[in-house]
Design brief:
The protein is about 40% helix and about 15% strand. By secondary structure, the protein is α/β, with parallel strands linked by helices. The protein folds into two domains: about 5-235, TIM Barrel (Alpha-Beta Barrel), CATH 3.20.20; about 240-265. It has an eight-stranded parallel barrel with strand order 1-2-3-4-5-6-7-8, surrounded by six helices. α8 (about 160-175) packs parallel to α9. It starts with 6 loop residues before the first helix and ends in an 11-residue tail after the last helix.
């Protein structure tokens, strides 16, 4: 349980009975809890733009934002593999820009791998990154940084044409050197086909249970974020309600004078 998870470990799990667990985290305290619980991969996602900063999309989040959150998470980890998103605008201009920003995430943020959204059009970049010692996790299907191009957060790969393209993209990213693939919001049968067609692990989010692992946004699965409730999220707790009740009790105890008590005073 305590053995450090590496990208090599993740690849080896492809041909084992081990199902990969992945959750997002954005701060030291939550990351420490997840690492102690035994999560395999912690993703510092640009979903922080939504659940931490309150933006409607992931697009406003910057490299500086990502480095700050990644570094905070890194200080909590002893076992989990730390993967960080390259945010929108940090790798689209040129390969040189992307490589420079990936290096920043690894040097200043202590990331152990980076995640990029896209298929064939980023394959040369993935090859360049991995060739320079930067591990890459791919991301296909619903790629939130392309929300305006998609016209919303719609299921992807629903036609024969788009399904074929996604299958090809998965194989191309594998050939380019990606060590794993996130498959987001695609039909379960397509996710199964992708999983069976590549020799690197697939990690699903809204992609059925035939992937090699699963990832969720932490605040979604803990019931702390209500702005959007995706169908594919299972809420394992309702911490939002619990926190609300605790705060109300705290306020009441202040008002009635029971906090702080004599035992809580000096």
């Amino acid at each position: 349980m305590n053995k450090k998870v590496r990208t090599k470990t993740v690849r080896e799990w492809k041909n084992s009975d081990h199902k990969i667990s992945c959750l997002t985290a954005y701060d030291y305290t939550f990351a420490r809890i997840l690492d102690t619980a035994g999560v395999d991969i912690i993703l510092v996602g640009d979903s922080a733009s939504n659940v931490i900063a309150g933006f409607e999309t992931t697009l406003p989040f910057t490299m500086e934002n990502m480095i700050y959150h990644t570094a905070a998470v890194s200080r909590a980890l002893s076992r989990a593999l730390l993967v960080a998103d390259l945010p929108f605008g940090s790798y689209q201009v040129s390969d040189e820009q992307a490589i420079s920003n990936a290096i920043r995430l690894m040097k200043s943020g202590n990331a152990e791998a980076v995640k990029l959204e896209g298929g064939e059009h980023i394959s040369e970049l993935v090859q360049n990154l991995t060739g320079k010692g930067i591990p890459v996790m791919g991301h296909l299907g619903l790629t939130p940084q392309s929300v305006h191009q998609f016209g919303g957060y719609h299921t992807q790969g629903t036609s024969d044409k788009t399904a074929t393209r996604l299958l090809n993209d998965a194989k191309i990213l594998e050939e380019a050197g990606a060590f794993s693939l996130v498959l987001e919001k695609i039909p379960a049968d397509l996710a199964r086909q992708v999983t069976e067609s590549v020799d690197i692990p697939t990690i699903g989010i809204g992609a059925g249970n035939q992937c090699d692992g699963q990832v969720l946004v932490l605040y979604d699965m803990l019931g702390m974020y209500d702005d959007i409730r995706p169908k594919f999220v299972r809420r394992y707790a309702e911490l939002g309600d619990s926190i609300n009740s605790a705060v109300k009790e705290y306020i009441q105890d202040i008002q009635n004078g029971s906090f702080p008590s004599e035992k809580e005073s000096f």
